[in-house]
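re: ur question from yesterday

yeah so i grabbed the chain u mentioned. its 471 aa long if i counted rite. heres the sequnce exactly as i have it in my notes:
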Amino acid sequence: MYYSHFGLKEPPFKITPNTEVFYTGGNRGAVLDALIYAINSGEGIVKVVGEVGSGKTMLCRMLQTMLPEKIESIYLANPSVAPEDVLHAIAFELQLKLPKNADRLKVMQVLQKHLLARHAAGKQVVIFVEEAQGMPLATLEEIRLLSNLETKHDKLLQIVLFGQPELDENLNQTNIRQLRERITHSFNLAPLQTKEIGEYLIFRLRAAGYFGPHLFSNAAISRIATSAEGLVRRVNILADKSLLAAFAENVYQVTPKHVQAAIADSEFGVEKAKQRSKQSQLLLWGILLALGLALGYAVSMWSQKHAVNQVQSEVAEKNVQSEAVKPSIEKNTNQTKTVVVTLAPTSTAITPATPSSVATANAQEDILTRRLNATSTWLASQAPTTVSIQLMGASSDEQLKADLINLSQKIELDNIYVYRTKVNNLPFLTVLYGSFNNRLEATQALINLPPEIQKNRPQLRTIAGVLQETK
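ran it thru and got these C-alpha cells back, copy pasting raw so excuse formatting
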C-alpha cells in the first residue's frame, strides 16, 4: 500500500525470516560465524538462547544456506515429543526405513548405521532442536545420549539447541547436568540497542529499494526501541505500521506520533499499556492507603496530646485556687481516635449471558470433557504397542476447547483423544488421533491428514509412551 509512496520495491519489514536480508549487526553476524565454526568442528553440543522474536529462526535459516554441502541438517520442531518417541522422530526426519513396531534399540541401530554410512561418504549430520525449552527433561537427556554416537575420531551427529531463556533454567537442574556438561559452545542473542535498531531499519529499507535519507526520525527510533524492547520481530511490526501511519498522513518521515499509533495497534503494545495502567493504579491505591494511615496516626497523636494538656491545665488551676483542697482528678485513660479510610466498593453490573453464548460455552465444555472421558476408556483398552498420532498440545482448557472444535471440522471427532500431562512441571493437554497397529499404518494416516493439520508437524506416539507420560 505505502511502497510507492516511499519509493520501495517490496515490503521492507516482513516478519517471515528472509535470509536475503539478514542483519549482521547486534552481534548477529558474529554469532552466525561462531555457529558455523562450532558445527564444522563437530565437537559437543551447541546452545543458542534468545527471547521470543530475537531472531533464532533466522539463524537456523542462515545456517542452512551457509553450511558446507557436506553437512546435512534436519529440524526437530515439536517440543512435546516424548523420550521414547524422539528417536523415531529423528529417524522420520532422516527418512529412514524402519521395521514394523521397531523398538528403541532397533531404531538406534538403524540410526547409527545410517550415520556411519554418511560419515564414510564424507558427510556430517547436524540436528537443530527448536523450542528446546519446552522439551521434557527426559527427552533432552535422550537427545544427549545421541551425542555418544561416534567413531574413533569424530562425532556422528552434531546437536544444536535453540531455546528461550527458560532453557538455561532447565539445564541448571541437577538431574540434567550431564547434558549441561556436554555443551561446548553457548551463544546468547541479546536485544538490539537503540543505535543498532536505527541501523537495522535503514538496512531493511535499502534492501527494499529505498535510496533517500532515513525515513525514521531519531525520536521515532528511540520510541520503537523502547516499546519493542530490542526484539527484532517487534521492531518489524512497529516499523511497518509506523510507515502506514505516515503514509495515511501523506508525509515522508516517521515521527513519534506515527510510532505511538503503531504501538496502540499492536498486541504487545496494548498489553504493556495495560500493565503500566495496572501498576499506576496499584501505586495510586498505595499512596492513598499511606495517606489514610498517616492522617489517622496524626489525629490520634493530636487527640492524646490535647487530652494530656487539658488534664495538666485543670490540675494547675486547682492547685492555684487552694492548697488545702486536694484536687480530685478523674484520670481518663488515653483514648486514641482513629480515622479509618473506607473505600466504597464498586458496583459491577453483571450482564446475563445470551442463550447462544451459553450454548456455545456448554458445547466447548462438553467437547473437552467428552474427549477426556473417552480417552481414559480408550487408553485402558489399547495394547502398549498401539501407535497414535500426536497432533498438538495446549496449556489451557479454554485454548484446547476452541482447537477441538476446529479439529472436529476437519477430522472425525470420535478418533480424537485428549489426556492431561505436565510440561516443565506445568499442566498441559495433549491431543492424539487414531489407533494403528504399527508405525507404517500410522505414517500413512499422518501423510493423509489435511495440510493445515500437518503444519503443526504431528508425531507418532506409542500407547506405552503415553501411559508412562500420564503417570
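noticed a couple things. The domain at 27-189 is CATH 3.40.50.300 (Rossmann fold). also Confidence is low (pLDDT under 50) at residues 322-364.
anyway ttyl
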